[in-house]
Amino acid sequence: MKFNKKVSIELIDDAKESYRRLNKIIGEQKKSGKINSDEIKLWNGIQRAFDLIVDNPFYGENAKKKQIPKYYSIKYTAKNLFIVDLPLFWRMVYILESDKIEIVAFILNIFGHDDYNKRFGFKKK
């Protein structure tokens, strides 16, 4: 799906820190000669998700309104929240903002399954 607006990605808050840490780990791994690791798989999955979001900002699964944690509703006034499944059971959460010229996907979190479950209030089975 093509939009008549520029679509960009911006990592903020927790997502920015998670991405920075992941890049640091991958940099160290590549220096030591590693070319395939869980971290590299995750990073590749994130890059693919970024590309898909730029192609279609509505790519992620739209969270049900009643399932949006109050944390997001209060901190980001999120009315729509999108969730992308990443490799190794990680998740990426983002919101969209738009004006007449551009759509911005603000990536709020990139986190593992357990942290995702805690944030969304899901219980372990």
Please tell me about this protein's structure.
- This protein has 125 residues and is α+β, with helices and mostly antiparallel strands.
- The protein has a single domain, classed as RelE-like (YaeB-like fold), CATH 3.30.2310.
- 41% of the residues lie in helices and 24% in strands.
- It has a five-stranded mixed β-sheet.
- β3 and β4 form a beta hairpin.
- The longest helix is centred in the N-terminal third of the chain and has 19 residues.
- It is globular.
- It starts with 5 loop residues before the first strand and ends in a 5-residue tail after the last helix.
- 20% of the residues are buried.
What's this, in brief?
The protein is an alpha+beta fold and 125 residues long.
Keywords:
single chain, 125 residues, alpha+beta, YaeB-like fold, globular
Distance between the termini: 37 Å
Kindly give the count of domains.
Answer: 1
- β-strand amount: 15-25%
**What is the name of the CATH architecture?**
2-Layer Sandwich
Classified in CATH, the superfamily is RelE-like
Global outline: globular
Overall strand count: 5
> Which structural class best describes the helix and strand composition?
alpha+beta
Largest sheet: 5 strands, mixed
pLDDT below 50 for ≥5 consecutive residues: which ranges?
A: none
Radius of gyration, in Å, reads 15 Å
Could you estimate the helical fraction of the residues in percent?
Answer: 40-55%
Kindly provide the name of the CATH class: Alpha Beta
Helix-strand topology string: EHHEHEEEH
Mean pLDDT: 91
Q: What name is given to the CATH topology?
A: YaeB-like fold
Question: What topology, given as strand order, has the largest sheet?
Answer: 1-5-4-3-2
Number of helical elements: 4
